[in-house]
Design brief:
Number of domains: 1
Radius of gyration: 19 Å
Distance between the termini: 31 Å
Number of strands: 5
Helix content: 25-40%
Shape: elongated
CATH class: Alpha Beta
Order of helices and strands: HHHEHHHEEEE
Number of helices: 6
Structural class: alpha+beta
Length: 202
């Protein structure tokens, strides 16, 4: 029997709250890594699934939030791993690299169209000249903060990319929030879009 509109509204509210908790409890501690190298895979530990209260969900028997979501816990973990690998590689570069070398680690975790766009932006004359002139080298470390949106075959994560940058003028640190969207299902995901988190991407 299909749940009533009231039950669906309650279930949706529980899902939203639970996903916010998942970002902090399940994903962020497991996928945060320091001093990452480009394209290095990250392992995400499994954790017990939060269970909404029976009285609030108005369901019979035990309940898991994944029964209301279009992906499994394993699928969510796989998607998170892809996002971290992508963001680590996205924020890691050297002034000695050409565009092809820079995007090489991205090719296994991002769509071909997105990789081409990133390569073109990396090779933009003004950007490339500034990077080479300052002899910039960046190493990135990514932390997943939350899930912004999801659908039947996509998930959008908000991530914090912390870059340790060395240049001719010394060392510095830069942190940037990105919204990273992955498309796929099960344990097969690839990044299809990346934007500044403040720009949307939902």
């Amino acid at each position: 029997m299909d749940p009533s509109p009231a039950v669906r509204r309650v279930a949706f509210a529980i899902i939203v709250c639970s996903l916010a908790a998942l970002g902090a409890y399940l994903l962020a501690p497991a996928v945060h890594r320091g001093g990452a190298s480009a394209g290095q895979p990250r392992a995400v530990s499994s954790a017990s699934t939060p269970v909404p209260s029976q009285s609030s969900a108005r369901v019979a028997g035990s309940a898991s939030i994944y029964q209301w979501l279009p992906f499994t816990q394993a699928g969510l973990t796989a998607a998170a791993q892809v996002v971290v690998r992508f963001a680590d590689a996205y924020g890691t570069y050297s002034y000695t690299q050409g565009g092809a070398a820079y995007v090489a680690p991205l090719q296994s975790v991002a769509s071909a169209q997105l990789v081409r766009q990133i390569e073109a932006a990396f090779e933009a004359p003004g950007v490339a000249a500034a990077r080479q002139g300052q002899k910039q080298v960046s190493t990135a470390s990514t932390t997943i903060g939350s899930i912004r949106a999801f659908g039947p075959d996509s998930l959008t994560f908000v991530v914090l990319v912390a870059q340790q940058i060395t240049s001719a003028t010394g060392r510095s640190q830069q942190t940037t929030d990105y919204a990273v969207t992955v498309s796929g299902s099960g344990d097969s995901w690839q990044v299809s879009d990346v934007e500044l988190a403040s720009a949307g991407n939902s």
